[in-house]
Amino acid sequence: MNILVLGGGGREHSLAWAVKQNPKCDRLVVAPGNAGIAEIAECASFDINDGGQVVNFAEENAIDFVIIGPEAPLAAGVADRLRDAGIAVFGPGREAARLEASKSFTKEICDAAGVPTARWARFDAPQPAKDHIRARGAPIVVKADGLAAGKGVIVAMDEATALAAVDEMFSGAFGDAGAEVVIEEFMEGEEASFFVLCDGENVLPIGTAQDHKRVGEGDTGPNTGGMGAYSPAPVLDGEVAQRALERIIRPTVAEMARRGTPYQGVLYAGLMIRDGEPRLVEYNVRFGDPEAQVLMMRLGAQALDLMQACAEGRLAEARVNWAEDHAITVVMAAKGYPGAYEKGSEIRGLEALPKDSRNMVFHAGTARTDGRLVAAGGRVLNVTARGDTLAEARDRAYAMVDAIDWPEGFCRRDIGWRVLG
Ligand code: AMP
Ligand code: GLY
Prior knowledge:
Blueprint: E1 2-7, H1 10-20, E2 27-32, E3 42-43, H2 51-60, E4 65-68, H3 71-75, H4 78-84, E5 88-90, H5 98-101, H6 103-113, E6 120-123, H7 126-136, E7 140-144, E8 153-156, H8 159-170, E9 181-185, E10 190-199, E11 203-211, E12 214-216, E13 220-223, E14 228-231, H9 238-258, E15 264-274, E16 277-284, H10 291-299, H11 302-311, E17 326-334, E18 359-363, E19 366-369, E20 372-375, E21 379-387, H12 390-403, E22 409-410, H13 417-420
Parallel strand pairs: 1-2, 1-4, 2-3, 4-5
Antiparallel strand pairs: 6-9, 7-8, 7-9, 10-11, 10-15, 11-14, 12-13, 14-17, 15-16, 17-21, 17-22, 18-21, 19-20
Helix pairs in contact: 1-10, 2-4, 6-9, 7-8
């Protein structure tokens, strides 16, 4: 089978790595890929957000199956174009991708399906939004309605911050994403992420994870795309996961099907859990980054079979071959991230590290210039390990971190602290 993966971050490196291990995979192409992906797959260059270009490439290269990594091509309808052309694809169409692309759409679905989530209201002008904030008081959450690269959410612990967030969003700081603003009740609890595959009708859980969004140790400092993650998430144990499935995921998937826009792909539910009761924070219509890295490390080659069963509507008969294992990933980022950082610094020492089913360094923002491996982004490496316990996985991941020679990079030393202390 010839497989095309769209994307070029650590998430896509881990997807490509898992797919590549499956004997069904003959040819593997990743667009655009990165320096780490280039070691295990062919990299191709075209606009992955342009459905026409993706279909052309797939047809010219006899691609049998396309796996879409990031949200932008999904929101742009690339999966629809591939399906229309008769090419098998893993990922939701444009309408179903609104579960991530529009916060108010998700809230409407939640209301229609009776899904527990924060109370909310939508505004298209600043004054009523501010009146609402003054009436409700802080803490309160202000969100740009559209896709804002993970930056459109302000959790305001005081009223002044919330009011300033409204001004910022309506001033165009988030472009079109901020033309509408959703204001939500602040939910307390512990956050965890639940990943399920959906084939339009059936759902299959494939793992849980927790990530560390803040840049600093102890979960302090500014938000990032994620500084590390681990799987499984103990707070989402069997019973809580079952509740999330029955009260949140299944009703959402049923509502999407009822509307004639069935959901196909991975559904990533961000949950807030208090006293064993999960409520929905948000949906993403793709794997998390860096959560995919720990999920792929645990699933390995079967990930391809599961994604194929999902795309072909065969999830009812699919099973996950679970192991009693744990995985952790530590993100190494360029100093300065998530603020300004330099590109081009050299990274040494990766060749000597193990690369096997228990130890992998996935590349995010890397490039190769004149044979040297250099940093080419904010989040640069995802040092990932699997073990019988989380502590074992953590120790091996940090041993790899310590063997990497990259003075211009940094990482958090406390990934997994909620579980490991
Ligand atoms: P989102 O982009 O919607 O995931 O929001 C980013 C982060 O903001 C989430 O991961 C939560 O930590 C936080 N957040 C979002 N909505 C709420 C809410 N209603 N109550 C508390 N925290 C929230
Ligand atoms: N790590 C969070 C995300 O991928 O949205």
